[in-house]
Amino acid sequence: MRKALFLALFLFLSWAAYAQTIDPYTWDFGRVKENKVVEHKFILKNESARVLNIKEVNSSCGCTVSQADKKKLLPGESAVIKVRFNSRKYSGPVQQYVYVHTDAIDNPVVRFIIKAEVVK
77 Cβ partners below 8 Å, 6+ apart? Predict the structure, then answer.
């Protein structure tokens, strides 16, 4: 009985630690070789009851290019935000931001984060 309780506690704590690392607004590419281009696709879902319009998608650096596959989202629809990071001229830890500007009243700018460790 005691072993089963410890096992259950261990599984719960492991699951809780795993759940905390899942963040739909952040992507870590891990180790990326210098001069490589890597890509990730974020999902932006319209969780409101009205149409959501994407006005603009931009990033914090010229090394990161981003675009949305559609500009108008009906309630419940999603858009793919494709992000490409070019590691050229970088070394070590890198963190860049992608900003999705919308016409939402409560949260007009959604920020996505990409991370990488650029190695030679």
Answer: 45, 46
Whole-number Å distance between alpha carbons of 109 and 52: 12
For residue range 91-108, what is the model confidence (pLDDT) as tens digits? 999 999 999 999 999 899
pTM higher than the cut 0.70: yes
By DSSP bridging, strand 109-119 and strand 26-33 are parallel
Q: Classify residue 68 by burial, with Cβ atoms within 10 Å: 0-12, 13-18, 19+.
A: middle
CATH for the stretch 24-119: 2.60.40.10
Nearest alpha-carbon partner for 81 in 71, 90, 89: 71
